[in-house]
Write a structure and sequence with these properties.
Strand order of the largest sheet: 4-3-2-1-7-6-5
Subunit structure: The SWAP complex consists of NPM1, NCL, PARP1 and SWAP70.
Shape: rod-shaped
Keywords: Cell membrane, Cell projection, Coiled coil, Cytoplasm, DNA-binding, Membrane, Nucleus, Phosphoprotein
Strand content: 5-15%
GO molecular function, one term: DNA binding
Main location: membrane
Largest sheet: 7 strands, antiparallel
Number of strands: 9
InterPro entries: EF-hand_SWAP70_N (IPR057836), PH-like_dom_sf (IPR011993), PH_domain (IPR001849), PH_SWAP70 (IPR057837)
C-alpha cells in the first residue's frame, strides 16, 4: 500500500511484479526502514521526474508520521497549520539526519510569522529562549517546533485565526513560492469586460482564480526575461492601472489603490529581473546565504578551536619547559648553595688552621721568653759565683775576668750567631710557608679572595715586619761577628797577659791555669759552654782551698 501510494503521489508507474520479486526471499518478518530503502531508491525515487504535487507528497508523509510523533497536549493551532509548520521545518532544517532546525532559522521563521501577524518582534524574549536552547541542544526537531509555535509563547495576545493566517502566508511564500497574492480586476481579451480575480504571483508565473480558495483556476500569465510591466493612466472609469507585456499577449490589470498597484509592479519587476539573472526565489536565495554563512562561521569556529588547541598544546609545552627550567634552576641553586657551604666550611677550616698556627707561634714565643728568663736566671747565678771567685782571687781578677769575658763574649757571639741563623732559617721557612699560603690564596675563587684580602694584607705586613726583623738580625749578626773579632783579639791579649802570672801562682796549685788542651775527662757545661776545668779538678781545687783556709786561720 505504501509503495502504491508513493507511486501515485510522485506520478511514477507502479510495478507490483518488481515489488514481489524484490521481497520474495524475505521470510524474516516485517521489513525495517533499512530493508525498505533499497527498493524505495531503485524502483520509485530514481524514476521521479519532478512533475508531481509536492504539497500532496508532503501531506502523505505527514499522514505517515504525524499520528505517532505529534504531541498529545492541546495546541493553539489546527492540524492543518501543524502540517504547514512541519513542511516549513523540512524546508528550513539542516541537510543532515536527524533533521533539526537551528536557532538562526527558528528566529527567521518566528520573525516572518510575527511580521505576518502584524505584531512587533520581541528580540530580548527570543534571546533568553535561545540561551536556554543552546545550553541543552543544537536545535529543535519538527515536533518540538510545532509545540513551540502551537504553545503561543511568541504569539501572545493573538487569536487562532490570526496565527493560522500568518502560518498560511509564510507557508505560501516559503513552500508554494508565492511572492504576492490578492484580489485585482482583469480586463478580458474578447469581451473587454473587467472581472475580479484572485492573483497569485510565483517565480515564473502569475495564476488567477475565481476566489482565494484556489479551486477554480481561470488562467496563467507565463513570465520570462522578456516580459515587462508598466503603469497606465486611468481610463474607462478604472484607476490604478498597469500593463503586463508578454511575447504573445498583454494583460491590463487594475489594483484597488495606488499602494497595491505599486507593490504589484515592484513584485513583478523583481520576479522578471530574477528570471533574467537566472537566480532562485528570494527566500530560497536568502536561505542558501544563511546556510553558507552558518557553514562559514562553523568553519571559522572549528579553525578557532583548532588554533586554541594548538595554543593550549604550545602553552602546555611551554609550561613543561618552564617547569624543567625551574627544576634546573632549583638544582643549580642547590648546587650553588652546596658549593657556598663547602666554600664557607673551607674558609672556616682555613681560619681555624690560621688560628692554630697563631696559637702555636704564641706558645713558641712564650717558651722562648721562658727560656730567655731561665737563661737570665742562670746568668745571675753564674755571676754570683763569679763574684765569689773574684773575692777569693783578687789578684787574678783582671786576667781571669778578661779571659772569661772574652770566652763569654765568644760564646755569646757564637750563640747569638747560631740563634740569629736559626731565627733567620725559621723566618725563611715562615716566609716560604706564607709564600705558599699566598699562592694557594691567589688560586682561590674570586669570592674567597675578596674575603681573605684583609688577612693577606695582614700577612704581607707581618712579612714586611719579618723581613725588617731579618734585615735587623742580619745587621746584628754582622755586629756580632765584629764583636767576635774584637773579643778574639782581647782573648789573645788576655792570654799574653796571663803568661806572666804563671810563675807567680804556681805555688797556689793551679787556682788558675793557662788555657791548654783539656783532658779527655768530661768537662763541665756551663750556661756559656764548656768550662775550663773538669769536675774532678774542681773538687781537688776546692779541697786545696779549704785546707789552706784552715791553715791560715
Amino acid at each position: 500500500v505504501l509503495s502504491h501510494n508513493l507511486c501515485t503521489v510522485l506520478n511514477v508507474p507502479h510495478d507490483p511484479v518488481a515489488l514481489e520479486e524484490h521481497f520474495r526471499d524475505d521470510d524474516e518478518g516485517p521489513v525495517s526502514n533499512q530493508g525498505y530503502m533499497p527498493y524505495l531508491n531503485k524502483f520509485i525515487l530514481e524514476k521521479v521526474q519532478g512533475n508531481f504535487d509536492k504539497v500532496e507528497f508532503n501531506r502523505m508523509c505527514w499522514t505517515l508520521c504525524a499520528k505517532k510523533n505529534l504531541s498529545k497536549s492541546p495546541l493553539q493551532i489546527s492540524d492543518e497549520d501543524a502540517f504547514k509548520v512541519w513542511v516549513i521545518f523540512n524546508f528550513l532544517s539542516e541537510d543532515k539526519y536527524p533533521l533539526i532546525i537551528v536557532p538562526e532559522e527558528i528566529e527567521y521563521l518566528l520573525k516572518k510569522l510575527t511580521e505576518a501577524m502584524g505584531a512587533g518582534w520581541q528580540q530580548e524574549q527570543f534571546d533568553h529562549y535561545k540561551i536556554a536552547l543552546n545550553t541543552s541542544r543544537e536545535g529543535l526537531s519538527a515536533w518540538e517546533l510545532i509545540d513551540l509555535i502551537g504553545s503561543g509563547h511568541f504569539s501572545k495576545g493573538m487569536d487562532r485565526q490570526t496565527v493560522s493566517m500568518a502560518i498560511n502566508e509564510v507557508f505560501n511564500e516559503l513552500i508554494l513560492d508565492v511572492l504576492k497574492q490578492g484580489y485585482m480586476l482583469k480586463k478580458g481579451h474578447k469581451r473587454k469586460n473587467w472581472t475580479e480575480r484572485w492573483f497569485v504571483l510565483k517565480p515564473n508565473i502569475i495564476s488567477y482564480y475565481v476566489s482565494e480558495d484556489l479551486k477554480d483556476k481561470k488562467g496563467d500569465i507565463i513570465l520570462d526575461g522578456n516580459c515587462c510591466v508598466e503603469a497606465l493612466p486611468d481610463k474607462d472609469g478604472k484607476k490604478c492601472l498597469f500593463l503586463i507585456k508578454c511575447l504573445d499577449k498583454s494583460f491590463e490589470i487594475s489594483a484597488s489603490d495606488k499602494k497595491k498597484k505599486q507593490e504589484w509592479i515592484q513584485a513583478i519587476q523583481t520576479t522578471v529581473s530574477l528570471l533574467r539573472a537566472g537566480s532562485p526565489p528570494p527566500h530560497k536565495e536568502a536561505r542558501q546565504k544563511r546556510k553558507e554563512l552558518r557553514q562559514k562561521l562553523l568553519a571559522e569556529q572549528e579553525e578557532l578551536e583548532r588554533q586554541m588547541k594548538e595554543l593550549q598544546t604550545a602553552n602546555e609545552n611551554k609550561q613543561k619547559e618552564l617547569e624543567t627550567v625551574r627544576k634546573q634552576l632549583e638544582a643549580a641553586a642547590a648546587r650553588a648553595a652546596e658549593e657556598e657551604k663547602k666554600r664557607l666550611q673551607t674558609q672556616v677550616e682555613l681560619q681555624d688552621r690560621f688560628s692554630l698556627e697563631l696559637e702555636r707561634e704564641k706558645m713558641v714565643r712564650q717558651k722562648m721568653e721562658e727560656q730567655v728568663a731561665q737563661k737570665s736566671s742562670e746568668l745571675e747565678q753564674y755571676l754570683q759565683r763569679v763574684r765569689e771567685l773574684e773575692e777569693m782571687y783578687k789578684q787574678l781578677q783582671e786576667a781571669l775576668e778578661v779571659e772569661k769575658q772574652a770566652r763569654q763574649d765568644e760564646e755569646t757571639v757564637r750563640k747569638l750567631q747560631a740563634r740569629l741563623l736559626e731565627e733567620e732559617s725559621a723566618k725563611r721557612a715562615e716566609l716560604e710557608k706564607w709564600h705558599l699560603q699566598q699562592q694557594q690564596t691567589i688560586q682561590m675563587t674570586e669570592a674567597e679572595k675578596q674575603e681573605l684580602e684583609n688577612q693577606r694584607m695582614i700577612k704581607e705586613r707581618a712579612l714586611q715586619v719579618a723581613m725588617q726583623q731579618l734585615e735587623q738580625l742580619e745587621l746584628e749578626r754582622k755586629e756580632a761577628l765584629e764583636q767576635y773579632e774584637e773579643v778574639k783579639k782581647k782573648l789573645e791579649t788576655a792570654a799574653n797577659n796571663t803568661k806572666s802570672w804563671k810563675d807567680k801562682v804556681a805555688h797556689h796549685e793551679g787556682l788558675i791555669r793557662l788555657i791548654e788542651p783539656g783532658s779527655k775527662n768530661p768537662h763541665l757545661i756551663t750556661n756559656w759552654g764548656p768550662a775550663a776545668f773538669t769536675e774532678a779538678e774542681l773538687e781537688q781545687r776546692q779541697k786545696s782551698w779549704k785546707g789552706k783556709k784552715s791553715t791560715s786561720e
